[in-house]
Design brief:
It catalyses: dUMP + (6R)-5,10-methylene-5,6,7,8-tetrahydrofolate + NADPH + H(+) = dTMP + (6S)-5,6,7,8-tetrahydrofolate + NADP(+). The protein is α+β, with helices and mostly antiparallel strands. 49% of the residues lie in helices and 14% in strands. It has three domains: 185 residues, Gyrase A, domain 2 (2-Layer Sandwich), CATH 3.30.1360.170; 68 residues; 35 residues, no CATH class.
């Protein structure tokens, strides 16, 4: 279970005691509050709090004191304009706070987005649970031959079974030694802050992560992309479902201009113009490197 019975009871209590407020309220976000969305084998994402809604973005853009214009269509048009022209400040007026349970190696990749407030579970003060991320056999793949950061072909059945056995055995052996080191039964016991160094990178940690909508969209643009590592992409996908309900107009603009859009270099724009004019353009005449040309052709073909 991702949450303990005590945590489930706390969530039920929080959702059963709504309070009146004068704050902007998003009905879509309210439906997600506190509820954990399962991710991977033991992980989850849950919305703890939010600030603002679509109208707050428009309010900030116009520096007005009301709910924006009376026309929802006008508000959505403004949001699309802001997204299309890369305006950031109005989106920064909305914030989201998440509780995330994730493997340590995913957390280390995630934390490279240095634009949020983070408070992580401390293994100096507390004992980590015996919970490890063990991939499904279909998610085990060889190193990509084209991309040093990515995966290639899925491993064969025999090799994947061997790898999964090693992952389980190594993780549990390391945790056995971790428990033995911190035990004070008949020994002094190693300090938790030292014993944790023996734990594998697939053990689960937890944190609270608070971010504004502009930087959240940047995170999602990179991590919800098909080229992102699977283990972080599934977290991004779960967050996308929340954001879609929280700020639907802003999310539609994000899908249109970021997730579904592309960016071309000056050379790419020039090559596209030449192609539209009927000229045959090759990598040799494009002024691009081989990799740039392959990426460009993935867009235009």
């Amino acid at each position: 279970m991702p949450l303990t019975p005590e945590q489930d009871a706390e969530i039920a209590d929080l959702r059963a005691t709504p309070r009146p407020t004068l704050r902007a309220v998003s009905e879509g976000a309210e439906a997600h509050l506190y509820v954990p969305k399962p991710v991977l084998d033991h992980g989850f994402v849950r919305m703890i709090d939010y600030m603002g809604d679509d109208a707050a973005i428009c309010q900030a853009a116009r520096v007005s004191y009301g709910r924006g214009t009376k026309s929802v269509q006008n508000d959505e048009g403004l949001i699309r304009y802001l997204m299309r022209h890369w305006h950031s400040t109005p989106f920064e007026m909305c914030e989201l706070k998440l509780h995330v349970k994730l493997p340590v190696f995913v957390a280390r990749q995630w934390i490279r987005h240095r634009m949020a407030n983070v408070n992580e579970y401390s293994a100096r003060y507390s004992i980590l649970d015996r919970e490890f991320y063990i991939p499904r056999a279909e998610d085990l793949a060889a190193q990509s031959r084209q991309n040093n950061q990515g995966r290639g072909d899925v491993l064969g059945a025999e090799e994947s079974a061997r790898v999964l056995d090693w992952l389980r055995e190594d993780a549990h052996r390391a945790y056995d030694h971790y428990e033995a080191m911190i035990s004070d039964d008949g020994q002094q016991g190693v300090a938790r802050e030292l014993a944790r160094m023996n734990l594998p990178a697939n053990i689960y940690t937890q944190w609270y992560w608070k971010v504004d909508l502009h930087n959240l969209f940047h995170f999602l643009r990179l991590r919800a992309d098909s080229h992102a590592q699977y283990e972080i992409r599934v977290y991004a996908d779960a967050i996308c479902e929340m954001v879609k309900d929280w700020v639907p107009a802003a999310y539609r603009a994000f899908e249109e201009y970021r997730l579904g859009g592309v960016t071309l270099s000056a050379s790419g724009v020039e090559c596209l113009r030449r192609m539209l004019a009927g000229e045959e353009v090759t990598q040799e005449t494009s002024g691009m490197s081989g990799r740039e040309w392959r990426e460009f052709m993935e867009i235009v073909e």
